[in-house]
Amino acid sequence: MAFYYQLVLGELPCPLCALQRVGFLVAGVGLMLNLRTGTSAANYGLVLLTAVAAGSASLRQIALHVVPGTGSYGSALFGMHFYTWAFVAYGALIVYVGVMLFAVTAGRSVRARA
C-alpha cells in the first residue's frame, strides 16, 4: 500500500519510511529463501533480525510523532499512519517467525527420535 501511495499518488517516503520498506523487502527475501532452498532456521533468523531492526525504525518514527502538536508524516490508512502499520506488521512477523522456528525445531526433534 505504501508503494501505491508513493508511485501513484506521489507521496515520497522519509528516510525512516525507506528503511522500513527495505526491511519488508529483505524479510520477504528471507521468506522466499525458504521456498527456494527449503525451510531453514537460518532463513527465519534473517527474517527475525530484519523485523527487529526495521521494527525499531518504525518505533522510532512513532516516537517522533507522539508528542502533541508535532504533526505526522504522510497519509493515514484506517486511522493509522504507515509507520504505525509497519510496527504492527513487524510485530506480527516476529510472532509468526517465532511460531515457525518452533515448528521447524520441533519437527526435527520428532524425526530425530523416530
Write a short abstract of this structure.
This protein has 114 residues and is mainly α.
Structural account:
By secondary structure, the chain is mostly helical. The chain is built from 4 helices and 2 strands. The chain has helices at residues 2-7, 15-37, 41-65, 82-113, and strands at 76-77, 80-81. It has a two-stranded antiparallel ribbon. The protein is elongated.
Cα(first) to Cα(last) distance is 46 Å
- Percent of residues in beta strands: under 5%
Determine the structural class based on helices, strands and strand pairing. mainly alpha
Q: Regarding quaternary structure, how should these chains be classified?
A: single chain
In N-to-C order, the SSE pattern is HHHEEH
Shape: elongated
What is the average per-residue confidence, as pLDDT, rounded to a whole number?
84
Instruction: Work out the radius of gyration.
Output: 17 Å
List the helices and strands and how they pair.
Layout: H1 2-7, H2 15-37, H3 41-65, E1 76-77, E2 80-81, H4 82-113
Pick out its properties:
114 residues, mainly alpha, 75% helix
